[in-house]
Every structure is written in C-alpha cells, then in structure tokens.
Amino acid sequence: SMTQQLLAGPAPPPRPYRVCNWDRSLRKGVMAGSLAELLRQAQSTLAMPHPISLVLDEDGTAVETESFFRTLEEGTALMALSKGQTWAASKLSLSRKPPRRIDVACVTFDLYKTHPKDLGCLNVKATLYGTYSMSYDLRCYGARRLMKEALRWTLFTMQATGHVLLGTSCYMQQLL
Fold it and tell me: What is the pTM of this model?
C-alpha cells in the first residue's frame, strides 16, 4: 500500500463541502480531499450508521466514483443516506446558487502602486460577454525617473539633430 501511495503522487488538498442528513434537519461543513475521506467525515459528523452513500442535494445524483467526486465544486451541498433512506426534493432549496450573470461589457479600472516613490499605475480591463477580456497596464513611474527619461530622450533628439546638421553641412560644402 505504501508503494501505491508513492506512485499515486501527492494527495489532493482537502476542499470544503456541505453535508446534510436525509431530512435536511442537520447540516454540517466538512473538509475532504477524496471520496473515501468525505464518506468517513460525513458519517462521523452526522453520527450515521455504517454504510452510507452520498448524493447531490440539489437533484439526487449519486456520488459513487472518485473521478466524479473530483469534478464537484467547493462548497457543493451533499446529502448522506444510510440504508433504506432515499433522496427527496427540498421544498425550500437553500443550496441552489444563483445563475451566473453574463454581462455584455464590463470595464474595470484599478489604481495601484508598485513602489512608494511611484506616482501610481492604472490597469484598465474590459470584458465582453463574460468571455473575452482585454487589459492594458499604464505605469507612471516616480517624478525623478520620469524626468531622467525625458532628459534622455531630449539628449538623444539633440544628438540626432546635430548629426543631421553636420552631415548636411558637409554635403552642402562639397556641393558648393
């Protein structure tokens, strides 16, 4: 069994789930990284007799395999059933999440500083239909760094202008 554990790789981190009993009178939150661990946690937390089975609280789908368990989102509501108990639809479903709202367009502006001497940075992010997103990061460095950059560009343009004037004067002298 030790070899199987080493070959299987590291265990997945535990994730939170909500479990309830068959009549939904008792609800508890548990952390589990695997289906077997979740079954043990649910049985001990809800003080249920062995064996138990798990179903999704919203529609009664049985959670029997590890691969299906890994597809469940964090915070999924599950119902623990012992032998002879069956799932029944809830009259008032508190476990349902509201449907995801997809906006046509959403624009966000984030102002932040990466260094205390910086003037600040602006990140503009536009999301279209909740799927496509574009972002641009405008960085405003500190006043000293900004001034150095401006002087560097000024000196570069002055140097380029000087070279052009010297080249033109030499050419004009040879032409005359």
Answer: 0.47
